[in-house]
Structure formats: structure tokens, C-alpha cells
Amino acid sequence: MCMSTWENWLTHEGGRIVRKVAAKGPDPLDERERLVYEVWLFDTEQRNGGVSQYFCNRSLDQWQTLGDLASRFLPTFSRKPICLAED
Length: 87
Known about the structure:
- By secondary structure, the chain is mainly α.
- Helix content is 79%, strand content 0%.
- The chain has helices spanning 3-24, 31-49, 51-57, 60-73, 80-86.
- Helix 1 (3-24) crosses helix 2 (31-49) and helix 2 crosses helix 3.
């Protein structure tokens, strides 16, 4: 999948899930929707103001949630950036 196709998919799918969260809250999301939501949050924040904006606007708990979901569904996901920040 080329980058623009990925970005378009994430924007569309993330938008759908954000509307669902706005209407019903995050509880009705299944794990895959929750993963897309968390990736969408990260992607949107970092495209808007950089990775630092994500960590300023979201908590480390949010990053932990993304990491937990991503490690189950995306075997190549790495938490190294957060580990480097802790050193």
C-alpha cells in the first residue's frame, strides 16, 4: 500500500471511528477499531505538530494503550522511541 493510499485509508477509517467515539464513547470499539483510533490519534497529532505534540496532548497511558494494541496486531511494532526517552 503506497503512503497516500495508507494516509487516505487512515484518515477515512479514523474519521469514522472518531465519529463513533463521539456518539457512543470508546467502550463499544472492538480491539481493531481501538487500534485504528489510537494510530489515528498518534498520526494526526504528529502530522499537526510533531511527535512531541502527541506526548504533550496525550499521556504516557495513551502511548501504552497504543503499544499494547499494536504489539498484538502489528508484530513489527517497536516501543524503542519511548525506551530511548526514558534513558
